[in-house]
Structure formats: C-alpha cells, structure tokens
Amino acid sequence: MTKIAKRTGGQVLVDQLLIHGADCAYCVPGESYLEVLDALHDVRERFTLYNARHEAGAADMAEAYGKLTGTPGICMVTRGPGACQAAVGVHIAYQDSTPMILLVGQVGRQTMDRESFQEIDYRQMFAPVAKWAAQIDSAERIPEYIARAFRVATSGRPGPVVLALPEDMLTDVVEVPDARPFAPSVPALSPQDAAAVMAALSQAQRPLLLAGGSGWSDAGAAALQRFATANNLPVATSFRRQDLIDNRSDAYVGDFGTGVAPSLVKRLAEADLLLVIGARLGEITTKTYATLSVPNPAQTLVHIHVDANEIGRVYSPTLSAVSGPDAALEALCAQPPAPADADWAAALRADYLADCEPPPHDYPLDMGQAMAEMRELVPADAVITLDAGNHTGWAQRFLRYARPGRQIGSTCGSMGYAVPAAVAASLQVPARQAIAFVGDGGFMMSGMEIATAVQHGGRPVVLVFNNGTYGTIRMHQEREHPERISGTDIVTMDIGRISEGLGAAHIRVTQTAQFRPALLRAFDHDGPTVIELMTDPEQISTRTTVSRLRGD
Questions:
Q1: By CB atoms within 10 Å of each CB, which of 262, 333, 360, 383 scores lowest?
Q2: pLDDT tens string 372-407
Q3: Strand 173-174, strand 7-8: pairing
C-alpha cells in the first residue's frame, strides 16, 4: 500500500488543482493564503501564477479563461476587500454561465464570528451569485471540496464556485489521499427527442434557429453549421455569442444583442418556429421580454438547454429537452435532414448583409469603414474582447466571427472587462492575437492590467474609443432628458502617457486613413499596444446620434 505523504493544507490544495488539470491562476497576493503561494513556488514549472494589478482584473481574467477553455478559470484573492473587489468577476461568470473557481483567503478559525480583521462570511456573501459557496474548515477535506468545486463549475449550466480558506487550516499538516480527476456531468439529447425536434422542423414554413449560451466546443460550433446548412436554417445568435457559427456563412443572419437589427426583430415576429439551442431567452436576447409573447410565444417554441430550470422560466415551450449544446447538435446531425424553404433563409441573410453596410458619416474617423477594413485584417484565430458600452456596437455589427476565433464579452454589461480579458487571452496563447474594445471610461477602470501583460509576456491590442463621455448612459440620458447632461462627462486624460507608463506602445488615430496602418503596426509590435480612437460623442451609437435623440 502506498504511503501517503504529509502535506500542509496549502500543498494539498495545489496538488488538487494540478490533478484536475488547472495550469494557471490569476491573483492579487494576500497574507491570508501564504501557504498556497508557497506551495505554488514548488510547482512553478507546471503551473503559472499571474499576479494582476487589481482583484477585479484577476477575476475577469479567470472568467475569460473559463470562456476560452471551457474549464474553470482559477482566481485567488485575499479576505475582505480582496473578495469584495473580485465579486464582479463572480457575477459575470454567474450570468454568463462560465466555469470559474474563486479561492478566498479567510481569517483563522479561532477568530471567526468576532468581526476579525477583514472577516466576511463568504457563504452568505456569494450565495446569490455563485453556483456553490463554501468554506473548507478541515484540511483533510480539501480533496473532496476541490473535486466538487470543479464538478459543480462545469456540470449542467456552468458557473462560478467560491471556496473560503481559513489561513490556519492551510498550515495544518495532514495525511490525506488525493481525489481522482474530475469529469463534468452534462446531459445529452436522446435520439427520440432529436427525432421530435426534426418532426417539428419539418412542419415549419419559416423556422429560425437561435444559438447561444456557454459550453460550446469548436466541434459543437462546426456541427451547428453543418446542421443549419443541411436544413436551410437561418441562424441567429444571442448577445455576444456570435462566434458560434461562421458569420460568412449564408446560414448566419445576425445577433439578438443590444444593437439588434430592426429587420431581425421583424423576421422573428414572422417566424412560425423558433428552435433555441443553449440560449436562456433572457432580457437582452428578447429586448426586455418584448419580442416574444409571455408566457406563450406565437411561434412554435422548441427549447434545448443544459439546465432544466431554464426551460419554461419565462416562456412555455411547445417542445423541450435537456442537453448540452455539443451533444444536442451531435444528435440532431444524426437525424435525416428536413430542409426548410431556401428563400426564407436567403431573405434573412440579405437583411443581415444590408445591415452590415457602414452608415453615412460626417466625422473624420469613420468607424464603420474602419471596421470594414479591420475584418479583412484580423487573423482567423483572433480573440475579440468586448467591454460594456455603445462602442462595442461597431465590433458586434461590422466584424465577422468564426471558430477558432472567439468573441469574448460580458453579457451582464460589466465595465472594465475587455482589457483584463484580452490580457488573459494573450497570456494563454501568446502567438494568438487578442484585441480589446473598450471605451475611455472602461479603460480607466482596468487599463492598469496592461502592466500585467507586460510583466508576463502578453501582447494584446487595446482599442480605446475616446469620446469623453459614458456613452451608453449618455444615450439613455438624451433620450429621457434631452440636453440635461448630468454625471456622464469624463474629464480628458492623457491616454498616451498612461499607456506608455504601463509599458505599452501608443498610437493616436483621428482620421479613417490612419486606422489601417495603426492596426498593422500594433499586430507587428512585440508587446501591448493601445490604439486611441478619437471618436465624436455626437455619433453615440452605430444606429443614432445625439441630435437625432434630441429631435425624437
């Protein structure tokens, strides 16, 4: 019988991370989990620790890693303030269905419940925004808790897990066996359910497939394309899931995001069957639950989702099944096709292409034309990360996405996400180009993570849309209270000096002709580059202007 070695709780925890396939973590170091940091020193050839500049940045990096890999991104922060600042990443992971594990240092067990220095009950704090929040009070149970954390984060609807680690528990020396490597539990679509879906499709005259949610592999996305092509199905995606199908394919007809094309909303009303795979049918996708009737849509609704609790949450389906997206497409592709009317799909595709034409402009920097040029220059495997704000409409409306390239954005609208996410993508695969879209407001929230990229060898390109305002809020403000600007102006800052001070190259673009050479120069630079785009606040979104809002 193999003798079990004595290890500290910190060493046991690190060994479990390696057993379950983790290869990196993002952190801001803290004295509450020194034993974990010390144990990581011994495995630094197999596990990379990225020290971020802020806990929110570390959590966003871990969340982005989870999106990119489908395995839990690991974030480590200290107690109290560290955990509070990391909470934003947990909220993103929860609403975006992203596998993530947040490890929080905790006060010693002997001082709990006395409001000790930086003490918080993390089980209560994170219960509403995590799939599971717990505290490991016994070092002997670390293998049990960590194995469960990986399974919970990846099984069913993926999401975040939070584990608190009392600092004295991590110093305990124990003899405990390791857990076996985890395997997620994901339901699969049965042949009978797949046949029922195809039978419903065969009766439809104007079907529309809506793909979304998380848990899609590249193979699953490829299967979606094959299924759509074989059945003449027009495919739309939910908010910031545009990379699920090749946007250059005739099957792709747009996305139900914040800037959904009016023509696509009209076509949804005309559809007689809506096949939803992976998407939750949440507020953004349904324009505040207005594009589909509640609780019974006019369309025949076929809803396939990995979590039974999401089916029928708002909309009662005609037919439903519980399955992960990859398994669903595998089962559907095995069925005989039932091709829909090709003219219907062609009409939706024509609408999409018409909407992708850059609008007329009167500005020195034409972002529509710049995006048209950019989509021809972006490498096929590039990762585009999106912040919160109207500026991301340019990337969502005019760029083209397809696997292995990725579109990574917070669907819960968290500002400050794009830069840390691009840093994480660049660090994960340094040879792959990562490009962040962020406004001047979002850049000031998390732009310091560029220094993290510099320290660890990342080379993201950061496009900063500088218009001196919190654009999305300004748009709502002008619509509801025209010309009564309050709280949305941003004092001009020197983004060039900030960027260079963090170790990045900086290029300022004021005219359309300058954009292409700036982007090519950034792609060639061996390090981070910030391209500052001087945009006019009058052009408040891709579809309207401030003057038009005031006139309306």
A1: 360
A2: 999 999 999 999 999 998 888 999 999 999 999 999
A3: antiparallel
Distance CA 474, CA 479 (A): 8
Could you identify the residue written with the tokens 């379950």? 20
Nearest to 219 by CA among 306, 89, 106, 329: 329
Cα gap 536→108, rounded to integer Å: 53
Structurally, the chain folds into a number of domains equal to: 3
Provide the residue type at 18 as one letter.
L
Model pLDDT for residues 262-281, shown as the tens digit of each residue = 999 999 999 999 999 999 99
Domain edge (last residue) among 174, 208, 235: 174
Q: Are residues 415 and 331 in the same domain?
A: no
Task: Kindly state the greatest CA–CA separation across the chain.
Answer: 81
Q: What is the pLDDT of residues 412-439, one digit of tens each?
A: 878 999 999 999 999 999 999 999 999 9
Question: Do residues 471 and 397 both lie within one domain?
Answer: yes
Average pLDDT for residues 101-113, to the nearest whole number? 86
Going by pLDDT thresholds of 50, 70 and 90, the confidence category of residue 129 is very high
131 and 25 together in one domain: yes
Phi, psi of 256 (to 5 degrees): -95, 70
Range of the domain at 407: 358-551
Residues 419 and 340 in one domain: no
Task: Return the amino acid letter for 162.
Answer: V
* Together in a domain, 350 and 423: no
Q: Please tell me the predicted confidence (pLDDT) of residue 473.
A: 73
Whether residue 40 is contained in a domain is answered as yes
498: part of which helix (H) or strand (E)? helix 495-502
First to last CA, the chain: 79
Same domain flag for 410 and 513: yes
Q: How far is CA 153 from CA 66, 114, 171, 188, 355, in A?
A: 10, 31, 26, 18, 38
**Structure confidence at residue 544 (pLDDT):** 66
476 or 201: whose pLDDT is higher? 201
**Measured in whole angstroms, how far is the alpha carbon of residue 320 from the centre of its chain?**
26
Query: What six digits make up the tokens of 108?
Result: 């010693």
Whether residues 270 and 394 fall in one domain: no
Average pLDDT over residues 489-496: 84
How far is the C-alpha of 540 from the C-alpha of 109, rounded, in Å?
A: 53
User: Residue written as tokens 């009317």?
Assistant: 341
For residue 469, is pLDDT > 60? yes
